[in-house]
């Protein structure tokens, strides 16, 4: 083996490893971005608003699941279908958030800094689990096996779905 061949193998290995690491990191980057957005939302608005938003996620899913006009949403191409479903869910979340922020948020609500971090993570995981099991994300984007392990199993969906509610029960006072 010549030095050039050895250098070519090292270069190929480094490139392949870098692409694999970036692919895995990019999937977890999606979770981190959602986590950061929810945390910044709670930090900027106040912790009670995060509680209202998490409850709006649940209320919106309830209406989304029984939405009678879902058959009218576009089904092709895959990206258009995905954006239509996510858009419908986002509108429902926004409407319920407007309602719940007036009703739920109290001056007596207390959530610690650690609680906000945990609730932000649970909210981000909730949204990723919805993406896996409710929205047609898989037809548009393939997650890495590491993220698939956490979110793809139907047995885990219940726990990711319940995590924000359980977190609210224990962390919001």
Radius of gyration: 20 Å
The count of helical stretches stands at: 6
Provide the helix percentage.
over 70%
The secondary structure category is: mainly alpha
- For the termini, the CA-CA separation is 67 Å
Low-pLDDT parts are none
- Overall geometric form: globular
Report the strand count: 0
Main beta sheet, described? none
SS strand fraction: under 5%
List the helices and strands in order.
HHHHHH
Q: What's the average pLDDT?
A: 83
Compose a concise summary of this entry:
The protein is mainly alpha-helical and 173 residues long. The protein has helices at residues 3-45, 47-65, 78-103, 113-133, 145-151, 154-171.
Descriptive key words:
173 residues; 0% strand; mainly alpha
Walk me through this protein's architecture.
The chain is globular and about 70 Å long. The mean pLDDT is 83. 77% of the residues lie in helices and 0% in strands. The protein is mainly alpha-helical and 173 residues long. The chain contains 6 helices and no strands.
């Amino acid at each position: 083996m010549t030095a050039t061949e050895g250098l070519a193998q090292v270069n190929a290995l480094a490139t392949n490893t870098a692409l694999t690491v970036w692919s895995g990191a990019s999937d977890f980057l999606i979770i981190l971005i959602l986590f950061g957005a929810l945390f910044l939302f709670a930090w900027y608005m106040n912790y009670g608003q995060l509680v209202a938003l998490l409850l709006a996620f649940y209320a919106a899913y309830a209406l989304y699941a029984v939405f009678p006009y879902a058959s009218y949403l576009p089904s092709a191409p895959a990206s258009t279908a995905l954006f239509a479903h996510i858009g419908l869910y986002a509108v429902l979340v926004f409407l319920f958030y407007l309602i719940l922020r007036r009703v739920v948020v109290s001056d007596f609500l207390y959530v610690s800094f650690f609680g906000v971090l945990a609730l932000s993570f649970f909210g981000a995981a909730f949204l990723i689990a919805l993406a896996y099991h409710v929205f047609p994300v898989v037809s548009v984007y393939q997650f890495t096996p590491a993220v698939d392990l956490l979110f793809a199993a139907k047995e885990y969906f219940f726990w990711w779905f319940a995590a924000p509610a359980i977190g609210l029960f224990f962390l919001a006072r």
